[in-house]
Input
Amino acid sequence: MSEGVERNTRAIEGSVVTDFADRMSYGGYLDLGTLLAAQRPLSDPEHHDELLFIIQHQTTELWLKLVLHELSAACVLLREEQLAPALKCIARVKHIQKTLTEQWSVLATLTPAEYAQFRGVLGNASGFQSAQYRAVEFTLGNKNAAMLKVFSADPFAHELVGRALEAPSLYDEFLRMLARSGYPIPQSVLDRDVTQAWTFTPELVPIFADIYADPQAHWAAYETCEELVDLEDNFQLWRFRHLKTVERIIGFKTGTGGSSGVPFLQRALQLTFFPELFAVRTEIGP
Output
């Protein structure tokens, strides 16, 4: 038997703080009273699986808050020529993306029969209305001003998404950094209307081809390109996992928010963030 363990009970060390009458506690620091009271199922009688549905989406929103925090910081750091810390932010986002993608497997334990018993209480609530998700998409360059009207009844959400719409994307900041470093980024790219969705710009492909032709000579740019490719790859995996989870649970029913459901999600897979970084692969090698 290990020292300090008797009858399968571990003794509390004398130095462990147990009195929190006037000290900061774990629950106090994290405001767990507020956090754990935020799950309020609406089904009556309460359906066992509604808590799963709520927690799945609430935890997603918490992770999206951190993704926005990191991407916003990365944009500022690129603007300030601090590439290394910017890449650290992007690396953290990549780990969060993997967690978000894996999280779909938890929701996938919800069967069609179980979901059908409380789906009605959602009304028109839908993940399509996630302001943070939309702000992430906008920050990565996939902008759509028409989305703003979804948030017109929520001033905080409208401001969040509007701010992301007006700001240069992560890709914009990277291309501007490349221009400052001497790469021949077209002036039309540098002066573009950043409120518009990024569209494929063929003039950039030869620039990236030169970078990929000699990674050692262009290591900083080369490494950043690959980090951005990882971001988009991860995002598409998340979208696909979302699509398959929805298909598994509701089939081809329309979405609660009014969309066509699975077909609408399938079209999202056609959206892109950094198309030139994928197009350049065709130009590499024989």
About this structure: The CA atoms of residues 139 and 155 lie 19 Å apart. The mean pLDDT is 96. Strands lie at 5-6, 9-10. The first strand starts at residue 5 and ends at 6.
